[in-house]
Amino acid sequence: MKKKVLGLLLAATMSIGMLAGCGGSGSADTSASTDTAATTEEAAPAADTSSEEAAPAAAASGEGKTYALVTKSAGNAFMELLGQGFKEAVEASGGTAIIKDPASATADAQISEISSLISQGVDSILVAANDENALQAVLQEASDAGIKILTVDSDVAANSRAVFVNQASTELIGQTLLDACYDIAGGEGQYAILSATSQATNQNAWIEAMKAAAEADSKYANLELVEVAYGDDEPQKSTDQTQALLEKYPDLKVICAPTTVGIAAAAKVLQDSGSSVKLTGLGLPSEMVEYIGEDDAHSCPYMYLWNMIDLGNLAGYTSVALVNGDLTGAVGDTYEAGSMGTFEVVDVNGATQVILGNPFKFDASNVQEWADKGM
Ligand code: RAM
């Protein structure tokens, strides 16, 4: 793959661990808590300084332009970090960032935010989509008005946007989560998934990837997925759904929550009740630090995520490149993402993507450090 990550910072960000081998068939950082610990020390400063370093080079490219981000919903710390990284990159490029947080994680709530951005005449709209297809008409309207459209975190149908800024390969996230369930369950027994909304493009794609990986290898034959429950990225609903799973499946061994909102809610339920059911999934260190540990006192042995500030940065620089014409979204296009270096558009099953890196493992050895850095 490309030489995506720039020599300079290669060693410096958490994305290091993430970017190595990115975009493809490589394995996640599933084994390396030592690697993880080693990279983390240097990672935060890089994330913090990236926009400063990028500013001189990119300073004029976004001047006079307005770049919008529509998150999945308000009150989600993951989305707030994404917004922070996005704003940093846009401002380092001389542009103005507008961030809209819909009241709920629904397509309707996003449609009304996108409509108002069309009226404002922004230059680009970046969406973390709550639905793969339901935004199509409003995105077409935006596109007809000359606004560049791209997605981050959660995609729409490929014909509705120029490019998708993906945090990590969907297949690799699915494989990584399945392997975590397999490992934590001891290779056999029941597990359940606590997802976000039933329409969320990203969670649905990760769950499909988990199922496909399970089908593809007989080693998973004794691992049984009993249910996919939906907490809608609402803390209370996620709590209720966790409790329901515990009641319904007395033999449950593991819950996998591929959502930061769901995993935090489930972690509390399991730990407070002293349940023997264990948890893994995708979580923010700052929200999970008290629940992570290998012993009985902790509900989550380990989990994964990526550097949210880096994801926001990449999405911001991608927005700027799209608006100023450095990027069309075609496969093979390359462009500069500030101090993160050169990225390239790749084809994944017929849809264009830019991939940040690999999922990154958080366990007892590094979660506190990352929580302290505000991640
Ligand atoms: C939640 C959201 C987001 C997802 C993360 C892992 O914050 O559902 O879309 O990527 O979890």
The fourth-level CATH homologous superfamily of the largest domain is: Response regulator
Number of helices: 13
Would you tell me which CATH topology of the largest domain applies? Rossmann fold
Strand content: 15-25%
Give the integer mean of the pLDDT values. Answer: 87
- Cα Rg: 20 Å
Low-confidence runs of at least 5 consecutive residues: 1-60
Largest sheet, if any?
7 strands, mixed
Q: What is the number of independent domains? A: 2
Q: Secondary-structure element sequence?
A: HHHEHEHEHEEHEHEHEHEHEHEEEEEH
Q: Please state the second-level CATH architecture of the largest domain.
A: 3-Layer(aba) Sandwich
Bound molecules: alpha-L-rhamnopyranose
Strand order of the largest sheet: 2-1-3-4-5-14-13
What is the helix content?
40-55%
Measured between the Cα atoms of the first and last residue, the distance is 28 Å
Class by alpha and beta content = alpha/beta
**What is the subunit organization of this protein?**
single chain
* Secondary structure: number of strands: 15
Principal-axes shape call: elongated
Question: CATH class of the largest domain, anyone?
Answer: Alpha Beta
Describe this structure as you would to a colleague.
Helix content is 42%, strand content 19%. With 375 residues, it is of the alpha/beta class. It folds into two domains: 11-167 and 307-372, Rossmann fold (3-Layer(aba) Sandwich), CATH 3.40.50; 170-305, Response regulator (Rossmann fold). The strands form four sheets. Strands 2-1-3-4-5-14-13 form a seven-stranded mixed beta sheet, with helices on both faces. It has a four-stranded parallel beta sheet with strand order 7-6-8-9, sandwiched between helices. Strands 10-15 form a two-stranded antiparallel ribbon. Mean pLDDT is 87; it is low at 1-60. The site of alpha-L-rhamnopyranose has 14 residues, from α10. Alpha-L-rhamnopyranose binds at residues 72, 76, 78, 128, 153-154, 196, 200, 202, 233, 259-261, 282.
